Amino acid sequence: MKVGYSEFAYGYAFTENLIRSSASAPTGAPVFPNLVQEAKAGYDVRIDFPAVPLFSQYKLPELLTRTSAFEIAGGKCPGLTLEFFRIALTRRDVSHQHQLLIDWEGRYPGQVFYAAPCLRDGAAFNHAYNSVDVATGSALFSPDEIGPLPDDKVHTIAYKPGLSYGYFCSEPQRITVHRLENLTGRLASRFKDKRFADFRRTAQDVRNAVREAASPTLR
Asked: Which of 20, 114, 124, 190 places its Cα 20 to 30 Å from the Cα of 148?
């Protein structure tokens, strides 16, 4: 069942709501790669908060309402009940998107994620947008926690509002559902990090570290 709004609309609303509700403004405008750039970058948007860039790949789900859904019929996803959402990851033989996101997360731990809405229809989406709740009403998934795709088949993630976990399928494995409120707590601690509060201090720290690592001759 279609949710009644587009991935483009969701991506815009998520980005706008996230920035509008953030305690710290980004250092510049969000970066949206074009299709050619996205194929090399892997993400839909980069938001440069102070010292903490965030990378998001938006996924629009389908809403599952029947017991014939394989996640329910197979009984391999304990705790998952109707209704629930399912998103599809880009196949490995179609794009390197998933591996690119894992690579980004290796450089920026905890700052790269798939974002998918928990809003069942257009009315819920519009209400969440007006309430600045699209980002908080989303499920976030770590590409690194999912791990590399094992083959070129279609792989999906099933999740349900209120559950702290979802399932990476086709052979279901439980993965964590991250929420924006948890993410913002981690970001806030980084905003307050003295290393990032003063550029002059940060530059001096880097200079000292390089100097200590260098040989006497190089010094």
From this structure: 190
Task: Please report, in tens digits, the pLDDT of each residue of the chain (219 residues total).
Answer: 999 999 999 999 999 999 999 988 999 999 999 999 999 999 999 999 988 999 999 999 999 999 999 999 989 999 999 999 999 999 999 999 999 999 999 999 999 999 999 999 999 999 999 999 999 999 999 999 999 999 999 999 999 999 999 999 989 999 999 999 887 666 665 555 554 455 455 455 445 544 544 455 545
- What residue spans define the domains of the chain? 7-213
Q: pTM to 2 decimals?
A: 0.85
Instruction: State the Cα angle at 113 between 111 and 119, rounded to 5°.
Output: 130
